[in-house]
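Kindly draft a polypeptide, keeping tokens residue-aligned:

***
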Amino acid sequence: MAQPTPASTDQRKPRGRRLWFDLHSWVGLKLCLFLGFVCFTGTLAVLAHEIDWLLHPEIRVAPGPERASWGAMLAAAHSAHPDWELSAIEAPEGSRFAARVRARTPEGRLRFVWVDPYRGHVTGDTHWFNAHRFLRNTHRHLMLPVLYGVPLVAALSIPLVITLVSSLYIYRHWWRGFFARPRGDRPRRLWGDIHRLAGVWSLGFVALMALTGGWYLVESLGGGAGPPARLQAGSAQDDASPASAAVVDRAVAEAHARWPAFVVRVVRPAGAGGTLLLEGEAEAVLVRPRANAMAFAAADGTWAGRRDGRHMSLHQRISEMADPLHFGNFAGLPVKLVWFVFGVLLTALCVTGVYLYGLRAAEALRSATRRGRMAAPASDVATDGATATEGSWRCAWRGMGRWRWLWIALLLVWLALLPLEALK
């Protein structure tokens, strides 16, 4: 076989890059409305608890010198709402957050009761459907039934992988672009440089979102590891009455004595079979609180066993670490802010990519019109900055084709389902 000449090799490289560019542009343009919406809601969901803190005065507390015990906080919630069923109490998100008690009213409505973790008194209660739940349910499954919504959203991990891989082929020597200064001599070059700059800085984040999103897709299709093994203090026929405040405090003290590294984050006073369950953080990192747990009998606080996140299988470990990595909720507010910034960059990539397509299409249209190769309405031919921007967005909108109506219809379904979710 004859060896290719340097000239033929040089011709194939641009052609290959053009194929990757066309694939990158097609995926980004056709899916931009759906992908951008999911990225935007996911970005806000990173700070959903903080948004609720701003919206609801019941969640805001002033730090104090000491913390109230878990038992005292549960007792306060029970005293304020004696006829409500209290299923769990969760540690505050930060030093100025109230502890959250999950409750259900006699009518079956879900509520959150908020307890000052320093003074041990109830600050109020709010509806279950808050900003956090709105953003998480929107981002996770668009308010659709979980069976259909989760795989639909998680399938976006596939175009994320395509755009990531194709960008590495399109942007030659991309590793040199971390500190490249955008050139402002013309709009297309300026926004192209901004798009590449944002893309280079968010490469690792895009890869992380694609991997975790891909795992959610695997889970939704039946490949999940399932929850960790259940800890139970007795049989299902045992008394399932909630543990008293005194029993909870004794159990927390014994948990610390038996497992010094264990930090309680969630208390479930009435689990299956009359089990008091403590969940929290220990030596295993990047896992949800349920991965580490201590079980006690709810009746008298007798120790029943523990679950150590370090002893999970690889399959379970991947399942438990997906959420902390996807939302950045594993090391407090500083990490959340980093995830938020990268989420903004990812959302901006959707917008700037579509705008670049519109700029290229508008320039091609104006060039062809000037040369007399086609007739075009005067409104499509930009003559100044404002008209150029308008023409670019119009070209991008048309370039989406029928896909735009599919995503608009899907978002309309989301809007229609929103009131039904809020009424739970």
About this structure: The first strand starts at residue 85 and ends at 90.
